[in-house]
Design brief:
Structural class: mainly alpha
Oligomer: single chain
Number of helices: 12
Helix content: over 70%
Protein name: TRIC cation channel family protein
Distance between the termini: 88 Å
Family: Belongs to the UPF0126 family.
Shape: elongated
Subcellular location: Cell membrane
Organism: Rubneribacter badeniensis
Low-confidence stretches: 6-14, 294-302, 323-338
Radius of gyration: 42 Å
Membrane topology: Multi-pass membrane protein
Strand content: under 5%
Mean pLDDT: 76
């Protein structure tokens, strides 16, 4: 049994085949609003009267045509209501010649568009549910019906469909409403209540996404987070289940401890050499540097940098002498041992 079969078995109720009778006025309203938004879109893109009418019809009917072609059952809604086609053409022509009337109706048009998306989702999900397409396909066909017209409209003007870009919830709202309807229908809820829940879910998701500025993510890469998590799990498993965590940790810490010990030893050796150089500077090189500073001061060319350089030279000579002395003493010890 595939995944869709398992989901359908989860909602094992004898409810498939039931049809939600939606009043013709609601279907007409959703198609008319879709044609209106498509015509306004065409006017914004500076298309002519033909382009405005075509985009209006594609926006109003596109999602339903895709749904009916996929279902291949109960005819095509576009060809079943020729009177609605005439109404949509008349609305597109009106929008083209009187577009100025809609410039101050952005809020009204947005509300009508959100409501029409909800009605389209309801029409697609309810028809797929009535045809017995199952839970998953009913949700998908509801989402396609809700946003298919807008995607075709964007493609016709050479743009990437808005549902494929980072934006406020549009396709997400359509899928959410379709899911609400199908889930309630499979749960045995009366279909009219499920239809109302679908429209409300789409409308509120659309409004909330705009109000709270919720947007879909354009890119996401969880690889670094997953890699860190897997690394931690592997380390824990190595220490707990393989019983080698302590030894492995000691082996990993050993090179660091050796390097730290060698570094500290070198630092201590350099510190002792520096102390001997300072003592020798005080005893042997102080008079020479003082004489050099006095001569430079009498000539007017003395400076703190010069005296500091003199002290550094004396210190280097003393350190070099100490190193040679250490080497000589070591060679003497070796020869005496031989």
């Amino acid at each position: 049994m595939d995944v869709t079969g398992l989901i359908d078995a989860l909602f094992a109720h004898d409810v498939q085949g039931q049809a939600l009778s939606v009043p013709w006025s609601i279907d007409y309203f959703s198609v008319v609003v879709g044609a209106l938004t498509g015509a306004l879109f065409a006017c914004d893109r500076k298309l002519d009267i033909i382009g405005t009418v075509v985009l209006g019809l594609l926006t109003g009917y596109g999602g339903g045509i895709i749904r009916d072609m996929l279902l291949q059952d109960r005819g095509v809604y576009f060809t079943s209501h020729p009177d609605l086609i005439v109404i949509c053409i008349a609305i597109c022509v009106f929008v083209f010649y009187f577009r100025g009337l809609f410039r101050h109706l952005d809020a009204t048009v947005f509300f009508a568009d959100a409501l029409s998306v909800g009605l389209f989702a309801l029409a697609g999900a309810s028809k797929a549910f009535a045809c017995g397409e199952g839970f998953v396909l009913s949700v998908i066909l509801g989402g396609i019906t809700a946003v298919g017209g807008g995607a075709i409209r964007d493609i016709c003007v050479g743009e990437t469909p808005g549902i494929f870009q980072q934006s406020n919830f549009y396709a997400v709202a359509g899928l959410g409403g379709s899911f609400a309807f199908v889930a309630l229908a499979y749960a045995g809820c009366p279909l009219p209540i499920a239809g109302v829940a679908c429209v409300f879910a789409v409308t509120f998701l659309r409004y909330w996404s705009v109000y709270f500025d919720w947007k879909t993510a354009s890119e996401a890469d969880l690889t670094p987070h997953v890699a860190r998590g897997v690394g931690k799990v592997l380390r824990v498993a190595e220490g707990v289940f393989l019983h080698g965590g302590d030894a492995t940790a000691r082996q990993r810490r050993l090179p660091r401890l050796l390097r730290r010990h060698a570094t500290s030893g070198r630092a201590r050796g350099e510190g002792r050499a520096r102390d001997r150089a300072d003592a020798a500077l005080e005893s042997e090189g102080f008079d020479a540097c003082s004489r050099a500073d006095g001569a430079a001061a009498r000539s007017g060319a003395g400076s703190p940098d010069a005296s500091r350089a003199c002290g550094d030279r004396v210190r280097e000579e003393v350190v070099r002498d100490d190193g040679d002395a250490d080497v000589d003493s070591a060679s003497c010890r070796d020869s005496s041992r031989d």
